[in-house]
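From the thread on structure requests for the teaching lab: each student submitted one protein with a one-line request. Submission from student K.M.:

"Model 2-hydroxy-3-keto-5-methylthiopentenyl-1-phosphate phosphatase from Paenibacillus pasadenensis, tokens only."
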Amino acid sequence: MSMEPKKQVLFCDFDGTITENDNIVAIIKQFDPDGWRQLVQDTVDQRISVQEGVGSLFRLLPASLKDEVVRYSIANAVIRDGFRELLAYCREQDIDFYVTSGGIDFFVYPLLEPFGIPHDHIYCNGADFSGERIEIVWPHPCDDGCPNGSCGMCKTAVMRRFPAERYERILIGDSVTDFEGAKLADHVFSRAQLTAKCRELGLPHEEFATFHDVVRDLQERRPAHQERTRQS
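Reply posted by the TA:
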């Protein structure tokens, strides 16, 4: 009896992956409040959780800066080469594409707007400018399966909605917010800190510079995916 073929599903980070730079760090650096460098370092080194780190960074900024912060974050982001082609490839091959981002709605949605990704395929954090300081809100918390419990936007909770027995889970990412997801994925495309982490943990990964590299690799792996599909 033939089993249903596994469907490919792709989880793609935003900051430093879809965009060339880390938008959160770029924003904080631009407005340069006291104490931000140590918070970034502590988050990268996993001394504090991503949720605590990002929440604390934005709390350094007064909410009255809202317009400047939003304007700066959108004006200064550069979309990585080949992103449109990757989306076209996913549509053509019926690969589900999800943006799983530790970024914030006020820059994630506007920057992705031109690409026509449905909003329910974009997971990110929110921001509340109604108080004295900028407060980050966390609409996608960790589930019981998450070893961290304080991701902020829990990528593995999203991935677990796509069970391994039915899906081939592919992750694209670059940093600390992608470490746990890389352990769950069938295939990892990595840059920067994620590459170092994959090496350290002995996780198979492909390094990429642009999304053209990712498309090329997916195309090369396609026959293997189809072969596995036929055999299962």
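TA comment: The mean pLDDT is 95. The domain at 7-231 is CATH 3.40.50.1000 (Rossmann fold).
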